[in-house]
C-alpha cells in the first residue's frame, strides 16, 4: 500500500540532502505532486499533507480533479497540450509546463483571461519521442513571444531521457540550466526565465543538485492506481 505521508517524509529528506550537497535552500524548490495516475481520494491525501502544488497531464484528468477537489490548490499542467484543448484548460491552471510551439502560444493569447506563468519545454536530449522545442530554437522562440501579453515565460522545463546512466541525466539538466541562465541574463520583460522545472521520481535529486526550482513527482509520492500497481 502506498503511504503518502511516509513517501512525502522520505522525499523531503532527500530533497533536503540534495539541497545541502548543492549549497541550496530547500525553500527555493517547489514540490509538485503529479496526480495523473491516481484517484481523487489519493489526491486529497496529498492535500491533507499540505502539498498544494498539483500536476495533471490531460484535460480530462484535470477536469475530474477540479470538479471534485475544493481547496486552494495551485494547478500545474505538465502534459503536451493540444491547441483545441487550450480553452478548457488554460483558465483553471496557474502554471503551464509544456509551451513548445507558436500555435499554442497564439491560442493561449486568445483564450487566457489573465497572464499565465509558462515554462518553455525543451527537448535537450533530442529524443524523437519527446515533446519540446529543440534546444537551439528556444531563444528565438522566446524572442518571438514579446507580443503575447498573456504569456510570462518564468522558466524552462525538460524531461530527462529514460536511462540508468546518471551522467547522461545530469548532463541534460546542466544544459537546461545553462540555457536558462543565458535567457535570464537578457532580462526580457515578459520572460524573466528564472525557474527550472526538472526532476521526476527517478532523478529529482540530480535535478536539485543541478538547479531545479520545481520538481514534478508522481509515483514516488502517490504510487500508481490506474494500473493496479501498489
Ligand atoms: C508523469 C510525469 C511526471 C511524474 O513522473 P514520475 O516518474 O511518476 O514521478 C513528471 N513530469 C511529467 C511531464 C510527467 O508526464
Automatic annotation (TrEMBL):
Coiled coil regions in record: 1-28
Name the UniProt record assigns to this protein: Pyridoxal phosphate homeostasis protein
Known function: Pyridoxal 5'-phosphate (PLP)-binding protein, which is involved in PLP homeostasis.
Cofactor(s) for this UniProt protein: pyridoxal 5'-phosphate
MF-aspect GO terms: pyridoxal phosphate binding
Claim: Coiled coil is one of the keywords in the record: yes
Alanine racemase N-terminal domain: residues covered: 7-224
Organism per entry: Psychrobacillus psychrotolerans
HAMAP family listed in its UniProt record: PLP_homeostasis
PANTHER family: PROLINE SYNTHETASE CO-TRANSCRIBED BACTERIAL HOMOLOG PROTEIN, PYRIDOXAL PHOSPHATE HOMEOSTASIS PROTEIN
Entry annotated with the keyword Coiled coil: yes
Pfam families, A to Z: Ala_racemase_N (PF01168)
UniProt entry keywords in alphabetical sequence: Coiled coil, Pyridoxal phosphate
SUPFAM superfamilies assigned to the protein according to its UniProt record, in alphabetical order: PLP-binding barrel
Family: Belongs to the pyridoxal phosphate-binding protein YggS/PROSC family.
Residue numbers carrying N6-(pyridoxal phosphate)lysine: 36
Amino acid at each position: 500500500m502506498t503511504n503518502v505521508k511516509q513517501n512525502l517524509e522520505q522525499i523531503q529528506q532527500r530533497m533536503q540532502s540534495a539541497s545541502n550537497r548543492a549549497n541550496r535552500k530547500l525553500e527555493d524548490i517547489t514540490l509538485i505532486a503529479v496526480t495523473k495516475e491516481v484517484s481523487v481520494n489519493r489526491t486529497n491525501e496529498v492535500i491533507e499533507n499540505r502539498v498544494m502544488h498539483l500536476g495533471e497531464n490531460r484535460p480530462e484528468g484535470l477536469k475530474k480533479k477540479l470538479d471534485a477537489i475544493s481547496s486552494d490548490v495551485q494547478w500545474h499542467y505538465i502534459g503536451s497540450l493540444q491547441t483545441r484543448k487550450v480553452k478548457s484548460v488554460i483558465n483553471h491552471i496557474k502554471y503551464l509546463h509544456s509551451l513548445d510551439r507558436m500555435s499554442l502560444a497564439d491560442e493561449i493569447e486568445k483564450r487566457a483571461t489573465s497572464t499565465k506563468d509558462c515554462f518553455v519545454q525543451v527537448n535537450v536530449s533530442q529524443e524523437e519521442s519527446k515533446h519540446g522545442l529543440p534546444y537551439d530554437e528556444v531563444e528565438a522562440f522566446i524572442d518571438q513571444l514579446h507580443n503575447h501579453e498573456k504569456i510570462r515565460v518564468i522558466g524552462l522545463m525538460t524531461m530527462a531521457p529514460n536511462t540508468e546512466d546518471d551522467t547522461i541525466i545530469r548532463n541534460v539538466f546542466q544544459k537546461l540550466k545553462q540555457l536558462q541562465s543565458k535567457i535570464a541574463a537578457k532580462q526580457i520583460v515578459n520572460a524573466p526565465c528564472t525557474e527550472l522545472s526538472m526532476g521526476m521520481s527517478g532523478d529529482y535529486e540530480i535535478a536539485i543538485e543541478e538547479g531545479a526550482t520545481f520538481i514534478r513527482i508522481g509515483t514516488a509520492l502517490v504510487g500508481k492506481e490506474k494500473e493496479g500497481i501498489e
